[in-house]
Amino acid sequence: MKKIVSTILYVMFFGFAATLVTACVLLLIDPSDRFERSINNIEAVPINGDTDNNDSIYEQIEEKISSETAADHQLINIKYGYQALEKDEKRNLYDKIAKSIYSITDKADENGRYRTARMRMKDVKMSEFDIREVINAYICDNPEIFWIENLFGYAYSENDTIIEFYSVLSPKECGEHIKIFNEKMHSILSDIKPGMTEYQRERLIHDKVLGSCVYKTGISSASDGWQYFSVYGALADGEAVCEGYAKSMQVLLTRAGIPCSTVRGDADGIPHMWNVVQLGNEWYHLDPTWDDNDKDGVINYEYFNVTTEAILKNHVISEGVDAVINVEDSNSIDPLARYNFAVPMCTDKTMNYYYAEGVMIQKVDEESGKRITVALIEKAQNSEVYIPIRFGSEMPYSEYLEKLFYEAPYQFYNCIEQANMRLDDEHKISMDSVSVLQNENDMTLRVKIKSEKAAA
Predict the structure, then answer these.
(1) What is the pLDDT of residues 353-364, one digit of tens each?
(2) pLDDT (tens digit, 9 = 90+) per residue, 437-453?
(3) Which of 26, 71, 86, 202 is deepest in the core (most CB within 10 A)?
(4) Is residue 64 helix, strand or coil?
(5) Using CA atoms, how far apart are residues 127 and 116, in angstroms rounded to an integer?
(6) What is the DSSP letter of 70?
(7) Domain 171-332, CATH
(8) Which among 101, 133, 120, 115 is positioned nearest to 161, based on CA atoms?
């Protein structure tokens, strides 16, 4: 899904003088190159032939997705999908999937697919919708399983239901890909050190994923490349669409001891996927795809731990699975309906980027200048490029801007001068390369800075 930061302007400031020369540039992004498949578009095909005679030779994949965790943290098992399955037969099929996906035929069929070990549900006739619901539940809870196609086969043998999946990789290829994926996952998790807070762990993972992955444009379906919709594409290949971004965040955060799940919905009328994350006792929306939106390769944080109210300004959350299933006429159920198993309400702002890291300014005075100077020094020394600022309610948004940047004594630039007096030559901040990302609706501001060395 194309990322668009609405109502946000880049304002470039050239020079520092009594009269500032400014140029306003509206950040325009063309969504036409980012059409994605329907996330729930799992196809069903009949299993032909004698279902009791399965002469396929299966190989057990010895390499498994690692359950390694970061530092001294425990793996958080998200089971929203499993918990939503209201019937025992659905939960039984869910459990069988975990074994089937690691057992794959050694030869591809006529369509180039490798079949997984068949699952037999004895004395149960499961509908196509029920099977699809279980698969969706399993994928929701286990986004690290990247080699299974969005396709399943099923048939009935007397009172039994026979089900099989299809892998895009041979058993040997699958083992090789899992090994590469595990190594990449280990590399990211190893950067998390003991004592880091939940927020610090989340931000590190967020930055690692966005720093190594680019959005793959021009993708409309899995036929354009299965990897772009997977954690493998995002972490191992470094190219993905929103599904790959969101799944990667869930896999990594849960291994860093942070509850995280995916959310299905729409953004600008196009199917989209993002995350919900729990820090402490509060849940937040996190959209890593829409944060990966800087042409200079700099990571954004406009969708880092936002409320439900904030995300709904330009996202639509798909309804819950109960709303799809519980209809008067079961024949009217849309088998390809997009739904969520659980999406917590997010109302807290404590761990929002601007609240957790931003400089709070009620009045543009000497005290606020000191806080800005301290933030500039800290960010410059850590080679970070953004200074987040959150305004209070003392003045209108435009007046805060005027007093910080446009009116004498040009406080923000005075703060840069003060910071540069305490920074070494390697980290001194350029006066001529300051830009501002405005968000008037949320009364926030993100100032982008460059070192004099980088700006030269």
Answers:
(1) 999 999 999 999
(2) 899 988 999 999 999 98
(3) 202
(4) coil
(5) 20
(6) S
(7) 3.10.620
(8) 120
- The whole-chain average pLDDT of the chain stands at 87
Distance (Å, rounded) from C-alpha 178 to C-alpha 68? 13
CA atoms of 186 and 184, how far apart (whole Å):
5
Return the amino acid letter for 142: N
Placement of tokens 């993708």 in the chain = 219
What are the boundaries of each domain within the chain?
A: 9-30+358-455, 66-167, 171-332
Q: Tell me how crowded residue 290 is: count the other CB atoms within 10 A of its CB.
A: 25
User: What per-residue confidence (pLDDT) applies to 1?
Assistant: 53
CA nearest neighbour of 257 among 8, 60, 73: 73
C-alpha count within 13 angstroms, C-beta hemisphere, residue 295: 6
- What pLDDT digit, counting tens, does each position of 81-123 carry? 999 999 999 999 999 999 999 999 999 988 888 999 999 999 9
- Angle in degrees, 0-180, between the axes of helices 88-100 and 128-141, rounded to the nearest 10: 60
> CA-to-CA distance for 69 and 257, rounded, in angstroms?
8
* Spatial distance between the Cα atoms of 403 and 411, rounded to a whole number of angstroms: 7
- For 7-35, the pLDDT digits (tens) are 333 343 334 433 333 333 222 223 333 33
**Residue 449, C-beta contacts closer than 8 angstroms, at least 6 positions apart:** 376, 379, 380, 385, 386, 387, 416, 429, 430, 433, 434
Q: Which residues pair with 263 in a beta bridge?
A: 274
In this prediction, residue 330 carries a pLDDT of 57
Centroid of chain to Cα 291: 9
